[in-house]
Amino acid sequence: MMSVAMFGLPSPRSLEFSSMPAPECETNPAGKYDGPVDYTISAFEESCIKTETNCYNRYHPAIPLARPETLAMEVPSGSVVDFRTRDLWDHPDPGLTQPWDGEDGAFAPIPDADLNFDKAYGDLAAVHIITGPVGVAGAMPGDKLAIEILDITPLAQGFTMSHTPLGFMNGVKPDGNSPEEYKAWVTWDYDATTMSWTSPSFPDVVVPYEPFLGSIGVLPSAETVALKLEHHATEVELYDNPQWAVNPELAVPAAVCGVNGTHATECLRTLAGGEYFGNTDTQRMGVGTTLLLECEVAGCGVGTGDVHGAQGDGEVSITAIEMAASVKMKLTLVKPGDAGYATPTPAMYGTTSIKRMSPGEFISFMGFPFKSSGTLPSQYVWAKDRIDTLALTFLMEVGGYTYGEAMVLASVTVDLRVAQLVDKPAVGMEAVIDLTVFKGAKYAAFKQAAAWAGVSDVGPLMG
User: Fold this and answer.
1) What span is annotated as the signal peptide, if there is one (predicted)?
2) CB 224 within 8 A of CB 276
3) Who contacts 347 (Cβ-Cβ below 8 Å, separation ≥6)?
């Protein structure tokens, strides 16, 4: 079966940071690109773990470029490629828009969240499913690649989960940061007309559609892999266990990274990024951004996945609005001497998306790194623990949400920001809650709680 469709062979083009003029006022990120697509590579239709079709979930230079039956997936510089992705857990859908077929199917329909959690934990070694890797003709180590994100479109519903052992909270105090046990599983429906997400779990919440690539990168060199493995060894000393240890279970491609693979003890998980980029979960990787990376292997090897429909900076519950997606990107090779080559990497160039994603109306909570005597944690950890506590308390007390639901909303809509570092170790961090996502009586309640005496009664600025 031919999984990659070729629509034409474009001639190599010079580096262009944007193929479209920056709009004066962006109101949403979608529908931006209606130009030609030169190639399509899809991992959406079939399980990556079962078929290994156009996908991978580990990083190593021995991973071959995606090669369908009749076309080596090496595209000319300047090509526009449509990467069709699955969600991070190798599931095409949360289970509500297609029949659920048990052990081999997608996540089960709500309210069977317990089954979904069991399935998610059982498949944790599969994370993240990446579509690719796509080679760029003529790319050599030391060259750079400009990856322009032209469009991101959902292919299915989204979901968000929160659970006590996951994310930053990492369990219940005193061993973790959470004051109580919590658990929540939420599905989201995308409205293409309003460019927003809604959920039956949150009838008074509308989340703007602000998609971005949670994971994107190029294949790392053997030297980079060795450096990362050394880093993992240091993590054992610092944290008692490696944060994202090498794991050959459910690894793709199995011939390279699986239990009996040729490099089973070397393949990096996709979870911790590096100079090759990888899993960064930054909002900056949205439509209109151009990512500049240095190639570390011949062909460079570009892949993307773990696409998010919306996320607050921080992704505190370990998931955003997770979704399968069509991601259209232009891949342009930058050789020594070309415009842009001198820019240090990794680098991201963008226009107005960073302004558009800032809330028009907000309440912010500040945290400082107060800690118990005799403990030596990171000051950032303690500062963040404090602001998480304040923001989550506000969501629960005013909105009536459970702790798990508050974690979901925080992960999807609350931005965690570093306010200042100059007063180290007393650094300052903020949790910024976007009040405009709440509607009707829920918005009125949050506005009343946020706008104390002396604050003008003005509505959210939506322009």
Assistant:
1) none
2) yes
3) 291, 292
Q: Tell the residue number behind the tokens 């944790």, with chain if given.
A: 124
The residue type of 266 is E
| 396 phi/psi in degrees, rounded to 5 | -70, -45
Q: Strands 79-85 and 39-42: what pairing?
A: parallel
Q: What fold is seen in the domain 362-450?
A: Endonuclease I-creI (3.10.28)
Half-sphere exposure (CA, 13 Å, Cβ side) for 82? 22
19-43 CB burial, b ≥16 within 10 A, e <16? beeeeeebeebbebbeeebbbbbbb
State the maximum Cα–Cα separation within the chain, in Å, rounded to a whole number: 69
User: Per the structure block, which two tokens stand in for 220?
Assistant: 């790392």
Residue reference for tokens 């558009």: 356
Half-sphere exposure of 119 (CA within 13 A, CB side): 20
Per-residue model confidence as pLDDT tens digits over 71-84: 456 899 999 999 99
At the second CATH level, the architecture of 4-356 is Sandwich (2.60)
pLDDT at 93 over 50: no
> How many whole angstroms separate alpha carbon 443 and alpha carbon 461?
14
- The tokens 């069977």 sit on which residue? 112
What contacts 224, CB < 8 A, 6 or more positions away?
A: 274, 275, 276, 296
Three-class DSSP category at 143: coil
Q: How many CB atoms lie within 10 A of CB 442?
A: 17
Tell me the domain boundaries of the chain: 4-356, 362-450
Can the peptide bond before residue 133 be classed as cis, meaning omega within 30 degrees of 0? Answer: yes
Per-residue confidence (pLDDT) for residue 96, from 0 to 100: 38
Contacts of residue 287, Cβ cutoff 8 Å, sequence gap at least 6? 29, 30, 32, 149, 150, 151, 152, 211, 212, 353
